[in-house]
Amino acid sequence: MTDLEKMRAGRWLHAVTPEIGAALRATEELCFRLNQLPPSHREEREAILREMFGHVGEGICLHSPFHCDFGKQISIGDHFVGNFHLTILDEAPVTIGNHVYIGPDVGIYTVSHALHADQRNEGIMRSLPIRIEDNVWIGGHAVIMPGVTIGEGAVIGAGSVVTRDIPPRVIAAGNPCRVLRPIAEADRIAEEEMD
Questions:
Q1: Checking CA distances to 144, which of 34, 155, 166, 171 falls within 20 to 30 Å?
Q2: Could you report the per-residue pLDDT of 85-135, keeping only the tens digit for each?
Q3: What's the pLDDT score for residue 194?
Q4: Per-residue pLDDT reduced to its tens digit, 132-151
């Protein structure tokens, strides 16, 4: 297995290697180019995203600045909105479904480092995949930790730290993030309220 394959497989490894370093630098260049383009250059921005990410659906809106580590580990579905200052540390796969809305200053982190300082200083780390299913809304300043799945239709409150799986169609918030209640029909906005 190569170092990148070990990393993607969730194995503990020494991550300070020429192969990993070269991949990080290449993606950093793409992020820099993306973040320098004005929003009006939609076609150029989308071309960079399609080069950088493993998969990009239709109707994606990603505001700058944006940062990620590898990019190829990121798969984004249709009609995605990522607000300002989204950071995705994609040492493991990050799968984002359709109609996902992510607020500003959100961090999605697949990587964790060794707890002992001597090992951490040697670059020992591992990564676990993150899955965000369809129709999820993640509020601003939330942090999504390694190995988490957020179920279809869930809403994550602003400032939450998601350390474990969140089931579908619930409102969850806090640090650590916990389910507050299911999303109910009573939460639907009535037509007469929309004028």
A1: 34
A2: 999 999 999 999 999 999 999 999 999 999 999 999 999 999 999 999 999
A3: 82
A4: 999 999 999 999 999 999 99
Q: Are 90 and 54 in contact (CB under 8 A)?
A: no
Find, among 82, 2, 3, 76, the residue nearest to 35 by Cα.
82
Hey, which residues does 109 pair with through a beta bridge?
89
Q: What are 41's two structure tokens?
A: 């250059």
**Catalytic residue IDs:** 113
Q: What is the identity of the amino acid at 181?
A: R
Cα dist from 41 to 72, 82, 104, whole Å = 22, 17, 21
Distances (CA, A) of 68 to 56, 65, 88, 158, 176: 15, 10, 5, 21, 24
Task: Note the pLDDT of residue 191.
Answer: 86
State the Cα–Cα distance between residues 126 and 94, nearest whole angstrom.
Answer: 14
Is the CB of residue 15 less than 8 Å from the CB of residue 3?
yes
Compute how many other C-beta atoms are within 10 angstroms of the C-beta atom of residue 75. Answer: 17
Q: Which two tokens stand for residue 181?
A: 């209640």
**Peptide bond before residue 176 is cis, with ω within 30 degrees of 0:** yes
Report the distance separating Cα 183 and Cα 162, nearest Å. Answer: 18
